[in-house]
Give the backbone structure.
Amino acid sequence: MPSRSFLLKMLSLAIVFGAWEIAGRVPVSYAFPTFLESMRALALLAIDGTLFTAYAETLRPLALGVLISAILGIALGLWIGLSARFDWLFSPIFVVMQSAPLAALIPLLVMAYGIGLTSKVFVVCIMAMPVIVLNTASAVRNTPSSLTEMARSFLGSRLDVILKVIIPAASPVIFSGLRLGISAGFIGAILSELKITPTGVGDIITYSRSIADYASMYAAIFSIILLAVLFLNLLEKLELHLFRGNNRGYVTD
Amino acid sequence: MTLLLRTMTAVCAAVLLAGGLSVSDARADKIRIALAETPSDELAAFFVALDRARANGLEYEWTAFSDEELAIQAVLSGQMDIGFGTPYAAMQKSKAPIRIIFQLSKLKFFPVTSKKYGKLEDLDGQPIMLHSRGGGTDSIANVIEEKVGIKFGTRSYVPGSANRVVALVAGQTDATIVDLSNKNKLMKQHGDKFNVLPMFEVDASDEALFGNLDWIKANEKDVEIFVKALLSVYRDMAKDPTIIRRETNPDGPIGQLPKEILDELDAFYTDAVEGGLYDPDGGGRKAALADMDWYSRAGQLTGDPSALAIEDFWYLKPLDAAQ
């Protein structure tokens, strides 16, 4: 007997896809395919291998950007959270990065770094890093002082306090920052492929649009959303594995 | 709390309703034109035609989209009445009753290369830089391959002729395909370093005016005024390209462009008319046949080209009436 929450999730999927199918059949627009047409196009893209070659291309800037943002972002966030001076120096940069209209800045990035991989990795990082840094910093700053005081009264060294108290206490918020950051990174990867040079999944989207194969276009968009959701679930599993006490019921699935 | 919620719902409903009403109001009065780019020198002739149409009683409003595909989709979904572009694939694949009514410009693009190459045959197996996969220059490359019997090497994509010229000058590519004005600019500045490869004549459309057939039939009079104005501008321009600069409304979107651009208008349109960019007859059957042949070769249209019917792509009545 499947659990109730599983059934509810299936129900919500059925409602969303059902609404999509109906909207496609009405049709809302001649350029809007039905859910089944899109799934057929997705299967065709997968069978002839186009989808996988495209992802091999798209995942490069995405994986690099997300990796850089995660490692550098958490490190910077920890530092910012621990040192008031560093906070004063670096927080504003990330606040600006977070609120900057990225699509408008892409021409500047292209001017500075060309049209290759570097620019795309930059776009992913600009999207992903600020959330990660700012969440980590505020989590670290808001560690309950009773916990750090306790650690110190047990004669814990500064390193002990950071590794055994601050990071575990901050981990739920750090991970929620990571989740937000990584989903922003997915957006950045596609944005860069649509705005800089069309490669990978961005190429499937623009190409199918230009030959009016709207089912394939929506199939490509659907596939990237699916990938992002799967990845975020994986991340949640990782979090539960690393910090067992963090299970507070997330909404991802 | 409930009261607050109720008030908010009521306000939302009222705003939506008012919004809906004002939209349907605007629909009745003005025709909505979807431009595929922001107003630039290339659109000056179009705006002159719009001014002439307005003098004959046509009410319009225009919205500039950032690319052609968005303009096509806006027309497909009924948010815009008339759009810019060559939506052949959309006309064949989606069930939308979209038809072209006027050819705005021809696909006049030029293969330019470094001195390494002297003719199209030399490009066999060589990398080439194009606008976008499935776009106009991509289709030109496909047809070159077919007609000349060569196969290009890797195709890389950089949107915008001006950007491709920059890449060519910077040595990032040795071969690309650019539009008339960028080819002229490039050859004027660096004529000694690059070649323009001789190419066959192309009559197919680059930009055409299209709309939803039901809408066109329901607004036959407005469409006729518009097509007539366009045709008169194209004919006058063919005789004297400088009328565009003279007739440009100084308070209109083109008149507001920087002086440097306005000063170039005469040269731009003289070159364009000389280069055959504009058909003084607005395309019509000749353009429709050329387009069907071209876009079939280019892979945008599928099926046997001889089985395609003009009526499935063009609605010729307004143009015929204006001739």
About this structure: Chain A touches chain B through 17 residues (CB under 8 Å). The mean pLDDT of chain A is 89.
